[in-house]
Amino acid sequence: MPQMTKASAPHPFPDPARLMSFEFMAVCAISVLAFSNIAIFYGFYSYLTDLGIAPAWRGPLLALEPLTALIVRPFLGRYLTLQNSVRFMRVGMALATAALMSYPFATSIPLLACVRVLHGMGFVTVVTGLMGTLVAVLPREKTAQGFGLFSVTILLPYAIMPPFVEVLLPHLASHGEAYALAAPLMLPAFLLLVPLGRRTCALAAALPASHLERPGWDEVRAALRSAGVLLLVAANFCLVAAHAIVFFFMRDFATGLGASNPGAFFTCSNAATIAVRVLGGRILDRMNKGLALQLTFLALAVLVPLFAYAGLPMVLLALAALYGTGMALTMPLVNSSMMAISPPRLRVYNANLLMIAVDAGFFVGPFVGGAIMAADLGHSVLFAVSGAIMLAAGVCVRPVARVMRLHEDR
């Protein structure tokens, strides 16, 4: 399949005049609210321990929500269009709200498994709808900046919610009550869907019918065979799997170091990520994306194993800031690279392929991490494995760097 050049490739949607449109800002606001109900689960492993869940079950229960998303998303992505993207979000929010309100009552393995599956189905449906709308409203020349700003809305809850929940927990009976208290966050998201739905329908009505058709399986298979697509999906999977290990197991490690607020690790790392993406967002579209990804993954592969040797909470927080700086470059560059090498009609589908990799990473990461901790191998092995997975991501993007250079030369 011939590579489509940046200049000649038709865009599947009218190119928005500016990045900061109502549609983009509404998608970002909904994203903040949606990811807030995931960010509060940073202590879920500890909660399962408090409930007396056997160590062998903790990893699988952690992984069950993203596993559900991994199974469901390919089917959702096949039927997603701009016309129904808001409907996807509305249904997903209803399911996620029901799951959040159920956590205080789920204290056994079967009940927890059911709630995790329900939560996974709701969250994946919301995010699938978000991606369908986001790809339609990003200006072509600002995809990396747009994805960078959108990713800030994903990270902001991870910077705010963990320390906030730590302050709240002494006044609650359990983490389960904290999860239920996140349910009202869906109300303002529901309200935003009303004007966003009207605007996306108006945009869809202005498009040719061919631009709203779902891609055929022949197109999908051809796109998957094109250079770079599967490699970027693999790199995103490795990135998220490595990050999921850090995310789910850092609380216990930081507590063991004597940190007064274990959630501060995420505040420092995500504050650094947000600062880099907001202040340097415009540079992302001008840099050599392939080379930047290789160097960033290499740096993260060296950095993450060093967490185990921090020794003091303040040293760990300094490493957290470096970690956040590295993570600041990865997600927007991977997504922008995918948009650059994807055929126009498959940009929405390929964006969701990257999200499938996110689901797979959040399944494999906790599963592997749980197995390491259940075997009493310790945090040094845990973070070393995470670093090795980051290195694998760098290996995946090396050939993509050549594809990106060919694309830019054309």
Overview of the structural elements:
The chain has 410 residues and is mainly alpha-helical. The chain has one domain (22-409): MFS general substrate transporter like domains (Growth Hormone, Chain: A, Up-down Bundle). Helix content is 76%, strand content 0%. It is built from 16 helices and no strands. It has helices spanning 22-39, 44-50, 55-79, 85-102, 109-137, 143-168, 175-181, 186-205, 217-225, 229-256, 264-279, 281-284, 289-303, 313-341, 347-374, 378-409. Helix 4 (85-102) runs antiparallel to helix 7 (175-181). Mean pLDDT is 81; it is low at 1-14.
End-to-end C-alpha gap: 15 Å
Per CATH, the superfamily is: MFS general substrate transporter like domains
Instruction: Please name the CATH architecture.
Output: Up-down Bundle
Low-confidence residue ranges:
1-14
Order of helices and strands: HHHHHHHHHHHHHHHH
Please indicate the count of domains: 1
Query: In percent terms, what proportion of residues is strand?
Result: under 5%
User: Which range best describes the helical content: under 10%, 10-25%, 25-40%, 40-55%, 55-70% or over 70%?
Assistant: over 70%
**Which CATH class is shown?**
Mainly Alpha
CATH-derived topology: Growth Hormone, Chain: A
Tally of helical segments = 16
